[in-house]
Each structure stands twice: as structure tokens, then as C-alpha cells.
Amino acid sequence: MRGLLFSDIPKNAGEMASYFSKKMDIDIISIHDESVLKYGASKVYFYDSGFSDNLSDAIIKLNDKNKYDFIFISSTVLGREIAGILSARTGMKCLTEIFYFDNNDKIITKRLFYGGKTVMEESSDFHLFTVAPGISSADTLEKISESENLQLQKSIYEIKSRLDKNSGGEDISDAKIIVSIGRGVGSKENIQKIEPLVDILHAKLAGSRPVCLDYKWLSEDQQVGLSGKKVRPDFYIALGISGQIQHIAGIRGAKTVIAINKDKTAPIFDECDYGIVDDLFSVVDKLVNELKK
Amino acid sequence: MNIAVLIKQTIDMDQLKTNENGEPILDNLPLKLDILSKNAIEAAVQLKEKYGGEITGISFGTDKTTSAIKEAYAMGVDTGVILKGYKKSNPHVTANVIYEYIKDKNFDIIILGNQSSDSYSGILAPVLSEKMKIPLLSNAIGIEIADKNVKATLELEEYNVIQTQAMPVVISVAQEINNPRLPNVMQIMKAGKKEIKIIDANPNYSDSPNVISNTAPKSERKRIIFENTDDGVAEISRLLRGASR
Ligand SMILES: Cc1cc2nc3c(=O)[nH]c(=O)nc-3n(C[C@H](O)[C@H](O)[C@H](O)COP(=O)(O)OP(=O)(O)OC[C@H]3O[C@@H](n4cnc5c(N)ncnc54)[C@H](O)[C@@H]3O)c2cc1C
Ligand SMILES: Nc1ncnc2c1ncn2[C@@H]1O[C@H](COP(=O)(O)O)[C@@H](O)[C@H]1O
Predict the structure, then answer these.
(1) What's a single GO BP term from this record (chain A) (predicted)?
(2) pLDDT (tens digit, 9 = 90+) per residue, B32-57?
(3) Which terminus in chain B has less CB density within 10 A, N or C?
(4) Which among A12, A7, A3, A4 is positioned nearest to A174, based on CA atoms?
(5) Does some domain include residue B235?
């Protein structure tokens, strides 16, 4: 069994490779980044700059040559473009946003539905899939994959300019301990009251969507959830987060979830291992004092 | 300018409850506009306000989709079309039905959401762009038009880019592009009286995946909740002390 993986984000390539290499032989097409050679692919095809049209061409060509059983595309903005184009050009139907794949008699996949409220388990004989980020941890191996540079044709697209986003500079997706803040923190200034806990635990700071996107107390790349990062730390500490389904969708991979919320009825208490019902600032102070001992 | 906006109606997922087996209870659930369809409508109306033109709102839906089209009318869409026959989420079927309708209508811009709020499929825009053989601008957070060119700011995962393409184009929008307007009572009243074109789509669902189950995931969390803070702090710091070493 052979699969071809595509991702324009090296980290996603690593996650997908770790997951699918346990099930089949894999090749990867990835943006040029040496880290991708460490995830167990037979062959890695690198490109430096590509768009949906020329990358789709390259994937079709490689697939014609190597006759892959499956093509898995990382669900990023570019990845979804490529999946749609591949599908329209080749007639291959595409199953989207899977986070589970098994291939016995039939292909069994799972994806979130109803905005993350349910999990849809399906059987099909599809060959093309988009894969939700965070399907696995990215586990590096000793062996280094062979690599080759892809020659891409000219694209009709061209980037006129590139604008950097404000970034926290830290990648929360591989953190061991995450302290995550919600609207309950109240203001950007209040974050400094949380920092002693972050420091003492050597944790990384993350947040809910309103905190990262609407109020910008944190940067966009610190957002956890359905439309943010899916994280898998040993401990996820949710402070003043109500626990709406779109947030929970990002923390299903956490080993232990700890929630602090002053509202006893907050849904986060149904989705945590340990919870304290109280004002988050007083609990954070007490935790820090206790951990200092 | 001739603008098409693609409008999806979904169930109101905030009100969705599940039964003891985790199955969603769909009976009598209110319907609403897909979140990004609303952003797409707002983006279309803003383009019309700035540059002039006509907006056609198109939904592959059912008889019940009239409420979605009325909402779109109230926001500023000029003509509403329901392609009737939607049964379930299958992006290929949706793409075929919509393509058959739009292929010969000479739209300059086709606007839709980047990912719909129930399925998150996110492949309708590229499938349509490929079928129409026109360029695609994905996940836009800003759109400007000069002459026959569309200049869009596109939000990618790690940075944003600016791209320009000559019309006709397909543009998918991100939620950050705008805050959809709330129509006033007058606009809602007027929208209620406007005619809606309904066309039978006769979709072909034959190669859909087979749904084995669709249920709320069971949480395996321990749910040990402390109402006494000091007890909770003692237990949790014990756990964390082990981990942070
Ligand atoms: C398509 C879509 C995608 C989405 N994607 C995401 C996503 O990726 N990530 C995400 O997080 N959300 C996402 N959301 C938004 C989500 O539905 C919720 O609105 C959001 O998660 C709520 O954030 P919150 O918990 O910080 O705020 P709130 O729901 O307002 O909760 C704040 C909580 O803080 C508590 N609180 C207040 N003060 C204190 C205090 N002093 N001490 C202790 N507790 C206190 C309150 O009791 C309350 O429970 C998405 C929504 C949609 C429609
Ligand atoms: N049944 C439909 N009718 C009209 N537009 C749709 C339909 N389904 C999806 N769309 C549009 O396509 C966008 C992306 O949907 P999807 O590709 O299914 O995630 C949505 O935000 C809508 O704008």
C-alpha cells in the first residue's frame, strides 16, 4: 500500500507522516524544509514556491507515475485548493477534514460534523482526502528520507506582496504544558497575573478564539480550537474558558485537562479531568504559592 | 459588475442537542445562514455599494431555504435562486449542481465562504474555479477592484499575501473579512415580499460515502470538580509538580 502526502507546512507534513507511515509506505511533497526528512517517508519531494495550479499538476504527474493507492492533502488554505482542483481535474472524489483513517475491507474515516458537535464515521472507496491538522504528534525517526527537488511549471498566480502576521513566535502545538486563557481573564493587562503560573510550569500560553482573534490579547497562532490549533499536551490548564464545542475540538488530544472557572455550570467542567470552581486569579495565586514550596 | 454569492443554509448548531446515545436531535431545529455565507453576502454587498453591480444569491437547498434567501435579500442581494434538492453534505454534488447553474451566466465574481460551518469541507471554491476554468482567490480578508482586476488580501496560515487576478474570478472569504450587517425592519419587510426563483436541481448523490455513525464524541475525562478551592489546589499542584520537573 502506498500513499502520497502533501503539505505546505512542514509541521503538518510531520504529523501526517507519523500517522500514515504506520499504515502504508509514504512519499511526501512538501515545501522545502529539511525537518521533513525525519518522518519515515520513502521519498520526499521538495518545492520552494508553488501554487494550487502547478502543485496540482505535479501531484497528478507523480501519481500517474507511482500509482499511489491514496493521496492525503493537509487541510490548509493551499491544501484545500489543491484537493479541490485535483478532484475536479481527475474525477477523484475527495473526503474532507479526516482525523482518523483505517483501511481493512473498506476505508473507514472519521471527521467532525455539525461544527464539531458530532463525529461522522464513514466508509468509502475514496482515494483522495484532506487531513485535519493535528492528526498525530510529529515523531521524528533516526532514518533520513531520500529527497528530490520538484520541477514546477509556471503558475498563473503570483504573490504581489507578503504581509507578516503578528505572531507569538512560539509553537503551542508541541508544548508539554499549556496554560490557556479565555474571555474570563478580562483584559490584556490581566495576563501578567497569569504569567507566574506559566513561568513556574515552563508552560506555553494559549487562548480561546475571542482572546486571540477578536480582542488580540494574544496572537492568532496561539488560538486553540476548531479553527485554531489542535493541541496534545500532557496538561492543558483552561482559565476562564467556558468550553464551547469549538474550543473543546482543539483539546481532545490533551492527556489531562484542568479547568478553572467561576461558573459551576460552565460546559468546560464536563470536558475536564480536574476542575476548580472559583475566581481564576485567586486560584492561580494559590497554585503558584503551592508550586513554589 | 455581475456578482454571484453562494449561500448555504445549515441547522442552528448552537441549539443542537444530542440524545442519550449521542445522536443529534434534528427534529424542529431552527435553520440559519452558514456563518461564512453571511460574510460572503456582506462582502458582495460591499462590492456592489462601492463599485456598482447586481448580486445574485444562489443556494442549493430545499423549500425551507426561502428564509435564507430572504435574509440575503434584506442584506442587499438583488435576485435569489434556490436550486432545490439538497439532501446531505457532499461537496461534489453541491459543486455540480451550482456549476450547472452558473456556468453560462457570465458572472464577473463568484463569492463564497472558505469553509462552511457544519462540514468544514472547504473544497467548493477550488472545484468551481477548476470547472469554470477561472482563477481562485482563497480565504480573502480584503477585496478591492480596479478596472477589470481584483486585488485581494488572502489569509494563509503563517502569513498573508496580496494577489491580483483579472475577472472573472472565484473568491472565497474568511470570517475576518467583515462584520455582516443587521438589516432593519424596513429591509426585512421588503425582503419578505420579493420573489424567489426556485429550480429543481435533481442532484445525483450516488457515490457518497456511507455514514456508519454520526454521534457526539463521548468524553472520557475524569470530571473531578472541586468546589473547595484549597482541596483543588492541593490536588492539582501535586499533579503538576510531577509534570514540570
Ligand atoms: C465556526 C466557528 C469556529 C470557532 N472556532 C473556535 C476556536 O477555534 N477556538 C475557540 O476557542 N473558539 C472558537 N469559536 C468560538 C466559540 O464558539 C466560543 O465563542 C469561544 O470559545 C468562547 O471563548 P471563551 O470561553 O474565552 O469565552 P466565554 O464563552 O465568554 O467564556 C468565558 C468564561 O470565563 C468565565 N469567567 C469569567 N470571569 C472569570 C473569573 N474571574 N474567574 C474564572 N472564570 C471566569 C465565565 O464563567 C465563562 O465561562 C468558534 C466559533 C465558530 C462559530
Ligand atoms: N448547498 C450550498 N448552496 C450554496 N452555497 C453553498 C452550499 N454549500 C456550501 N456553499 C458555499 O460554499 C462555502 C464553503 O462550503 P464548503 O466548501 O462546503 O465548506 C460556504 O460558506 C457557502 O458559501
Answers:
(1) fatty acid beta-oxidation using acyl-CoA dehydrogenase
(2) 999 999 999 999 999 999 999 999 99
(3) C
(4) A12
(5) no
Query: For atom 23 of ligand 1, which residue has the closest CA?
Result: A208
Q: Is A139 exposed, middle or buried (0-12, 13-18, 19+ CB in 10 A)?
A: middle
**Left if phi > 0, otherwise alpha if psi is -120 to 50, otherwise beta: which for A58?**
alpha
From the CA of B91, give the closest atom in ligand 2. 18
The answer to whether position B237 is within a domain reads no
Boundaries of every domain in chain A: 2-149, 177-292
Rounded to the nearest whole angstrom, what is the distance from the C-alpha of residue B216 to the centroid of ligand 1?
A: 20
What is d(CA A135, CA A29) in angstroms, rounded to the nearest whole number?
A: 18
* pTM, full prediction: 0.91
* Binary contact (A89, B130; C-beta < 8 A): yes
Ligand 1 centroid vs A242 CA: distance in angstroms?
Answer: 5
Which amino acid residue places its CA nearest to atom 6 of ligand 2? Answer: B8
The verdict on residue B189 lying in a domain is: yes
Q: Which CATH topology does A177-292 take?
A: Rossmann fold (3.40.50)
Of the pLDDT bands very low, low, confident and very high (cuts 50, 70, 90), residue A185 is very high
* Residue B55, domain extent: 2-200
Ligand 1 centroid, distance to A10 Cα (angstroms): 30
Residue A158, CB-side half-sphere exposure with 13 Å CA sphere: 6
B123 at A interface, C-beta within 8 A: yes
Q: What is the pLDDT at residue A220? A: 87
Say if A2-149 and A177-292 have the same CATH topology.
yes
- Check CB contact under 8 Å for A273 and B224: yes
Q: At B79, is the pLDDT very low, low, confident or very high (cuts 50, 70, 90)?
A: very high
CATH number of A2-149: 3.40.50.620
**Residue from B63, B93, B110, B124 to probe ligand 2 pocket by mutation (most atoms less than 8 Å from CB):** B124
Look up the CATH number of the domain holding residue B60. Answer: 3.40.50.620
Inform me whether the C-beta atom of residue A198 falls under 8 Å from chain B C-beta atoms.
no
Q: What percent of chain A has pLDDT over 90?
A: 87
Distance (Å, whole) CA A236 – CA A231? 9
Q: How many residues does chain A have?
A: 293
